[in-house]
Amino acid sequence: MKHLPVIDLSGQPADIGYAHGKALCVQLKENYSIYLNMISTNTGQSEQAIVDLARRFLPEVEKAAPELLAEMEGIAQGAGVSLETILVLNCRSELAFPDQLATQCTVVGLTGNRTVSGKGVIAQNWDWLPAVKANVAFLRIEPAAGPRALILERGGSGG
């Protein structure tokens, strides 16, 4: 197996997103093609219909997680793609399997009194498609505010 790239990202959410989009532009576009095909195959919808559905998530993302929206906008700008492209990548499970979301990824958390370091830890597994294996990287994130993170991520997915 080849070594996965490690990309250092820091700053405000838009800065983190921009650097992510710029560094993983090629992988992001390949992932879009892979996931668009998966969504279309599962739903029978056209690309335009999928993009229109993804756009409907925008008000909720803006309301619930404006920092993630800023990161996604940065990814789009860095990669030279539309925000809708990034929304499709980030809403792929909701778009492809709306009735199976409970069977997707698992999250685990430990409080500081349960870890050797005394610091809390949160982790999530990722149920991925083998086709995106070549389009992932480790993102080492040092945000201006909030905890640091090391994420194994697909190009184009916000964190």
Q: Provide the CATH architecture.
A: Orthogonal Bundle
Low-confidence stretches at least 5 residues in length (pLDDT < 50)?
Answer: none
Secondary-structure element series: EHHHHHHHEEEE
- Portion in helices: 40-55%
Instruction: Kindly provide the name of the CATH class.
Output: Mainly Alpha
CATH topology name: Arc Repressor Mutant, subunit A
Counting helices, strands and paired strands, the structural category is alpha+beta
Q: Reading side by side through the largest sheet, how are the strands ordered?
A: 1-4-5
Count of discrete domains: 1
- Mean pLDDT, nearest integer? 90
Number of helices: 7
What do you see in this structure?
- The protein is an alpha+beta fold and 159 residues long.
- The protein has a single domain, classed as Arc Repressor Mutant, subunit A (Orthogonal Bundle).
- The protein contains seven helices and five strands.
- The protein has helices at residues 13-23, 25-43, 47-55, 58-64, 66-79, 83-90, 92-96, and strands at residues 6-11, 107-110, 121-124, 136-143, 149-154.
- A three-stranded mixed sheet has the order 1-4-5. A two-stranded antiparallel sheet has the order 2-3.
- Strand 4 and strand 5 form a beta hairpin.
- Helix 3 packs across helix 6 and helix 5 packs across helix 6.
- The chain is globular, with a radius of gyration of 16 Å.
